[in-house]
TrEMBL record:
IDEAL domain span: 34-70
Pfam families according to UniProt: IDEAL
Protein name from the UniProt record: IDEAL domain-containing protein
Amino acid sequence: MEHYYSYAEFLKAVGKGQASPSEQLLNDIYMDLFLKHVHREQTRERLLNLIDEALDKKDVEAFNLHTEQLNQLEDDETVKP
């Protein structure tokens, strides 16, 4: 099960004193994971909105394109641990 911690908690942890190289590496990894998570969620929301718009306009081509993109995004998530 994945645990998502808030950015505020991350900043509290980072702000404590001088970070050792291993702590800095962990901070960098955490930041990378956090940003990837945010990007995925924003991309998913954008695609869902585009799919809704395509349905409203009865634009089959746009619907198929954005649905395929959303499916690819979800497939990429399930492949990665």
